[in-house]
Design a protein that fits this description.
The complex is a heterodimer.
Chain A lengths: L3 H14 L4 E9 L4 E8 L6 H6 L15 H11 L4 E7 L3 E9 L11 H11 L4 E8 L2 E6 H8 L8 H18 L5
Parallel strand pairs in A: 1-5
Antiparallel strand pairs in A: 1-2, 2-4, 3-4, 5-6
Helix pairs in contact in A: 1-4, 4-6
Chain B lengths: L5 H18 L4 E6 L2 H6 L1 H14 L5 E6 L11 E4 L6 E3 L4 H13 L14
Parallel strand pairs in B: 1-2
Antiparallel strand pairs in B: 1-3, 3-4
Classes of the chains: A alpha+beta, B alpha+beta.
């Protein structure tokens, strides 16, 4: 994967596979302190301690555990090669939190990539799930909570509607430009 | 700046369309493989391209959905198109560039783009 945002999409897909109904994606960027991190938190089925130990090893993954197979090991090596690591916390019946840290300035840190396209994919293709997307750059922060959008759209208008998906993409992009200080 | 309030207007428009849609037949489903293999091979830009193309053409009867890995990782990104009453068509090694032709030939005009399908793979 060539972008960190694609790893975020991949990890969030694990949450969907784990039957989560609420998925929180948090991204922190702070060049001044050399911080680049993202967290994906879900309320899915969770994993037991044994599984948590195994998931980052691609070779113990079997077909039945494929929902968490290659993705986490890819992310782990990606973080480690950019001066960071991943942290995984999970509890059966409660959910999973995965955090990946990178050194912002590391030459091998991949670019974030098109995160707005990732969020639009997630939201529009899983219209019944809720997503909270929080993105900070230095001290600026932007948050999109589908529960708030859902209040306006009501039950009869789905996030899978093309015009809604398109609006969400534009809304995210505008706000990102804003938190990045006008230009990226 | 966009505000969340704009969604009100979008909602109204969508509801008007929904009423129209109910008079039409069942919609077209476009299903994109979004497992690790699909994502790594470029499923996201393909999905975005379908979204843009369908919006551009105002195809309100098209729904874009996702699925997991269907076991042909080497052929990802894979997209399945379900037109009501027709057999499912599976497109493989998709790119954003191929999307416009699929939308115009297959979804709008009902003629699958054979050269992009899994059957055309050697």
């Amino acid at each position: 994967m060539q972008e960190i945002s694609l790893n975020i999409l991949d990890i969030a897909e694990n949450s969907i596979r784990a039957n989560a109904t609420l998925i929180e994606v948090m991204i922190e960027e702070a060049p001044s302190t050399d911080v680049f991190a993202f967290t994906v938190k879900d309320n899915g089925c969770g994993m037991d301690a044994e599984m948590v130990k195994r998931v980052s090893d691609p070779f113990v993954t079997t077909r039945t555990t494929r929902k968490v197979g290659l993705g986490i090991s890819l992310l782990k090596s990606l973080a480690q090669q950019a001066g960071g690591d991943i942290k995984l916390q999970s509890e059966v019946g409660v959910g999973t939190i995965i955090r990946a840290d990178f050194s912002y300035s590391h030459i091998d840190r991949q670019p974030l990539g098109d995160i707005s396209a990732v969020m639009v994919s997630l939201i529009s293709m899983n219209p019944t799930l809720d997503f909270v997307y929080t993105h900070s750059f230095e001290k600026e922060e932007f948050q999109l909570d589908t529960r708030e959008l859902r209040k306006i759209l009501g039950e009869e208008v789905s996030f899978s509607e093309l015009s809604v998906a398109q609006w969400i993409g534009e809304y995210i992009n505008e706000n990102l430009t804003e938190i990045y200080g006008g230009a990226k | 700046m966009k505000s969340i309030a704009e969604l009100e207007a979008i909602k109204k428009k969508v509801l008007d369309n929904v009423n129209l849609r109910q008079e039409r037949e069942e919609g077209v489903r476009v299903v994109v493989g979004m497992a690790t293999c699909g994502i790594a091979a470029g499923a996201r830009p393909v999905m975005t391209a379908f979204l843009e193309e369908a919006s551009k053409r105002n195809l309100n009867n098209v729904v874009i959905e996702q699925t997991g890995c269907i076991g042909m990782c080497a052929l990802e990104p894979i997209v399945e198109v379900y037109v009501p009453g027709k057999e499912k068509v599976t497109y493989v090694k998709m790119t954003a560039e191929k999307v416009a032709k699929i939308v115009s030939d297959h979804i709008v005009n009902g003629a699958p783009v054979i050269e992009y399908t899994v059957g055309a793979q050697k």
